[in-house]
Each structure stands twice: as structure tokens, then as C-alpha cells.
From TrEMBL:
It is a multi-pass membrane protein. GO terms for molecular function: porin activity. Keywords: Cell outer membrane, Ion transport, Membrane, Porin, Signal, Transmembrane, Transmembrane beta strand, Transport. This is Porin.
Length: 513
């Protein structure tokens, strides 16, 4: 018994010793996982970045568009091959887009430090550059995606766009953001279609340095310096360089925009309340031209400052239904036309149609938009524009709503500028009514109807029908003789100058997340 007991105790001691040795070899216990926490400081969708006091929110959308009767996803068929109304224009254009936006916020002793970025990748169906001669059947040359100011039209139809990328700190906004001049609904008082005159746009952002003061009770004011070269300028035309080929497309001179000298200066005051909002905006725009001729020794016109003013009003939850909204705005510009005809719109118009004038081949609606015009040896003559846009959205129920909208923009040249343009126009195109029938002023209007269906949250199908009108001011019945235009397959012939119109239908499916 004593022997057996000693063996048992020795075996037990050995087992304990072995277990202790193995335990010493095991790794230390891992720290508890730090799970992502909800950040409720800045609204729904924000989470703390693990290990930091910074909150982040990810969002975006995927969108598919089908546009009928336009070569563009964002404008009507008012120039180029689609304005020619012949076999070279697209009956439809398609676009697919993926968007990602990232919003980060951190509380500091100076207020919230915010960064925001919105990046999109778009794939747009191809168009055609014009009539070609390399094939026996006269096939046109494939041009890839239609080019545009929002970054579309790169190789193979794909494009990467950085719409917004800015830092906000202590009341300052630095980077690419929507212009402080624009109303909160930018181009969309009730619509998806981009081609509305009547107010500032800059929906794809513009580089700026802005200070915003918050006075409380929903009252804010902003003062901004923003880039004007790419986004804030339409045309600065040297009419001495006008050609028959250019005039036939609505280009009233040689493009003569000089390099940047000053940013656009913008001021804005907004009152934002439960009933809606009111906003007043002002912008100053420096028109800086190049030279009268090809070299610097030919001289140049002096800079001339233009300006734009805008009033905007939104009324929410009107008696017609819960969530119903009316958005309206009006604008006046002098030498700053981009604040009326937004940065996604065309600045030259050449729309063809039928004619009843004997001897005329077809009719043509023509117009040209500029910030200023001049001739060699003269000063700049600033172009005046004014207009409005507005929309009403009615919610039938939580899944269906309908919007009606309209916009109108007027372009007016002063008497000196008309003399410059008409001198070139009458001579180069043999205007039948002469100088007395020449008037480069025009109006541009849009009316539209959109219906949206959201069968489930954050998924929307929409149909947006827009009717566009070009109202030119050349004397009725006037004709011009145009040169042959190979790019749109138009022959050299006599054309009647006449008002034109077109219809565009946009069908869209969009999933937000």
C-alpha cells in the first residue's frame, strides 16, 4: 500500500509539472475586439473610426440613364450632329454611373473639422464626330463618349470625376464644392434634366476658398473666392476673327479668353426655416481677354468686370400635400453669363428644321452666348442675360411623386456689340435682310414634366420629359448662305433663319445607399 501510494503521488506530481510547463508556452490572452460604434453626433449613418474620435459616413449611388433624342446625358440636342437633325445624330444615349462619397467629422475646440469627397465613375455610350471619307460607304468617325464639362468623354467612354473634395474648419471651406452662389437645389428645382437656364449651377463643384458665418436662427452668410476659368466663363469673342464656318454654328468670333487674373468673388446670405428658405447671391467676374492678333505686339483690350445677382425662394410642405415643395429663382447678369446658363449647358446653338421659304434648303435656329465681345482695337462689350427657373413637386403617396418645371433665359447684346456681330454676320453669311434684320439676341426656354416611382426605400425609377425652345431675333423670313459643313453633312446652300425646338426624354434608375 505504501508503495502504491508513492507511485500514485509521483505520477500526479509529474502531470502537474508537465501541465505547468505547457501553460508557460501558451500565448498571452488577446485584447478584446474594439467593435465599430455608432456616432450619433452628426445624424444617421455615422460611425466612429476604431481607435479615434473621428466619425465617418460612407454613401453613394448606382445609376443607369437612357436619354432619347440627344447625344448628351445632360443637355438637349441643340448643336452639332444632333442639332443637324439628320442620320449622324444619336436617337438615344446611355450612361451608367457609380458614385462614392466619404464624409468625416471630428469635434475640435474650433468647431467641427469636416472633410468630404464625392468621386464618380461614368460609362457613356459613344457618339460620332461627323461625316468621314475613309470608307467607301461614307461611315462617320467614332468619337467615344460625348465630351462635356463634367469630365465625361474620356477614352473608351469611361471617365473618372472628382465632383467634390473639400475641407471645412472653423467656418472655412477649402477645395472643390458647390458654388456659394447656387441655390441648394442647384440645377434641379423639380427635375433630373440639367439643361435649365435661370440661375447658377456648379453641381459638379468648383474650387473655392470660402468663409461662412452662422448668425443662428437659420441665418448664414458666405464670402467666397472661386475658380472662374473653366467653370465661370462662357465665351470671350474677338469678332475680328469671325469666320463663315464659325458663324454657322453660333460662334460669333474667335475665342480669346486670356489666362486667369482674379477668381470670381461671391457673396451669399440665406435664411433657412421650417417653412423653406430665402437666399440672395452676388458674384463679380473678371473678363480677361488675350490679344487682338496672334502675337502680343498686336495689343489687347483692358479687363472689364462683370457681375451677377440672384434671388431664390423655397416653400416646403405647401397645402397641396405633405412634403410638396415649390422652388423658384431669378437671376440677372452683365458680363457673367455662366451664372444664368449653367456650366453643363451649351454656349452655341445651331438647330436645323424644315422650311417653307422658296429656294431655301432647310431652316436654322442660331444663337451664341458670351460674356463679352470686341473687335481689334476696341474695348470689351459685356453681354447681358436674365432669366428664371422654378419647379413644383407633388407627392401622390410615399412611392409616387410628380414634378412640373420651367426655365427661361434671355441673352441681350448692346448696340455696339450688335454692330460688331452683325458686321461679320451680314458679310460672311449674306444675310438677306441686311443689317436692319440682324439681331444676335435670343431667348432659350424649357418646360418639363417628371414622374418618380420608389417601390422600396432608396430605389427610384423616373421619366423626365423636357421641351426646349430656341427663340431667335433675326428678322422673320431672313435667309443666309452657309458654307458646306462636312462635320454635320450639311451642304453649302441657302437656309431660312427660324425659331426651333426639340424634345428630350430621360429615363433613369437609381439606387442610393
Amino acid at each position: 500500500m505504501n508503495y502504491s501510494k508513492r507511485v500514485f503521488l509521483a505520477t500526479a506530481a509529474a502531470l502537474v509539472a508537465g501541465s505547468s510547463a505547457h501553460a508557460a508556452d501558451l500565448p498571452l490572452k488577446a485584447k478584446a475586439v474594439e467593435y465599430v460604434k455608432i456616432c450619433s453626433l452628426y445624424g444617421a449613418g455615422f460611425y466612429y473610426i476604431p481607435g479615434t474620435d473621428t466619425c465617418i459616413k460612407l454613401g453613394g449611388y448606382v445609376r443607369a440613364d437612357l436619354i432619347l433624342n440627344s447625344n448628351s446625358d445632360y443637355d438637349a440636342g441643340n448643336n452639332g450632329v444632333v442639332g443637324a437633325r439628320n442620320r449622324l445624330g444619336n436617337y438615344y444615349t446611355t450612361r451608367s454611373r457609380a458614385d462614392l462619397n466619404v464624409d468625416t467629422r471630428t469635434a475640435t475646440e474650433y468647431g467641427v473639422l469636416r472633410t468630404y469627397a464625392d468621386v464618380v465613375y461614368s460609362w457613356t455610350s459613344g457618339g460620332y464626330a461627323g461625316a468621314g471619307t475613309t470608307a467607301t460607304n461614307g461611315a462617320t468617325a467614332y468619337s467615344g463618349a460625348p465630351a462635356g464639362t463634367n469630365g465625361s468623354g474620356a477614352v473608351a467612354g469611361g471617365s473618372l470625376g472628382v465632383y467634390l473634395a473639400f475641407i471645412q474648419f472653423a467656418g472655412f471651406t477649402m477645395g472643390k464644392a458647390i458654388s456659394q452662389f447656387s441655390a441648394p437645389w442647384t440645377n434641379y428645382p423639380a427635375n433630373n434634366f440639367d439643361g435649365l437656364p435661370g440661375g447658377g449651377g456648379f453641381v459638379t463643384g468648383v474650387n473655392q476658398f470660402t468663409y461662412t458665418a452662422d448668425f443662428g436662427q437659420g441665418v448664414t452668410a458666405a464670402f467666397s473666392a472661386q475658380d472662374q476659368v473653366a467653370y465661370g466663363t462662357t465665351n470671350v469673342w474677338n469678332v475680328s476673327g469671325a469666320t463663315a464656318a464659325g458663324l454657322a454654328t453660333g460662334s460669333y468670333g474667335a475665342s480669346d479668353i486670356g489666362g486667369s487674373r482674379s477668381p470670381d468673388l461671391v457673396a451669399m446670405v440665406r435664411v433657412d426655416q421650417a417653412w423653406g428658405l430665402f437666399q440672395a447671391s452676388f458674384a463679380a467676374h473678371d473678363n480677361h481677354a488675350g490679344y487682338y492678333g496672334a502675337t502680343e505686339d498686336t495689343g489687347h483690350p483692358a479687363d472689364k468686370w462683370g457681375w451677377a445677382g440672384q434671388l431664390a425662394l423655397s416653400i416646403k410642405n405647401i397645402p397641396t400635400g405633405a412634403g410638396d415643395t415649390v422652388n423658384v429663382q431669378g437671376v440677372y447678369t452683365n458680363g457673367a453669363s455662366r451664372y444664368n446658363f449653367n456650366d453643363l449647358m451649351s454656349t452655341t446653338y445651331a438647330m436645323y428644321g424644315g422650311t417653307g421659304v422658296a429656294g431655301a434648303y432647310q431652316s436654322l435656329g442660331i444663337g451664341g452666348l458670351s460674356d463679352s465681345v470686341f473687335v481689334a482695337g476696341s474695348g470689351q462689350q459685356l453681354t447681358t442675360t436674365y432669366g428664371f427657373r422654378g419647379g413644383y413637386t407633388h407627392n401622390w403617396d410615399p412611392q409616387w411623386n410628380t414634378g412640373v418645371y420651367g426655365a427661361w433665359g434671355a441673352v441681350r447684346y448692346n448696340s455696339t456689340a450688335k454692330g460688331y456681330v452683325c458686321g461679320a454676320f451680314v458679310t460672311a453669311l449674306a444675310l438677306s435682310s441686311g443689317a436692319t434684320g440682324c439681331n444676335p439676341d435670343f431667348n432659350y426656354g424649357v418646360v418639363g414634366l417628371i414622374t418618380r416611382w420608389s417601390p422600396v426605400k432608396n430605389l427610384t425609377f423616373s421619366a423626365d420629359l423636357a421641351y426646349v425652345m430656341l427663340d431667335q431675333k433675326y428678322a422673320g423670313g431672313s435667309t443666309v448662305i452657309l458654307p458646306a459643313q462636312a462635320s454635320i453633312a450639311k451642304p453649302g446652300a441657302t437656309y431660312e433663319l427660324k425659331d426651333q425646338n426639340t424634345v428630350t426624354l430621360m429615363l433613369r434608375a437609381q439606387r442610393n445607399w
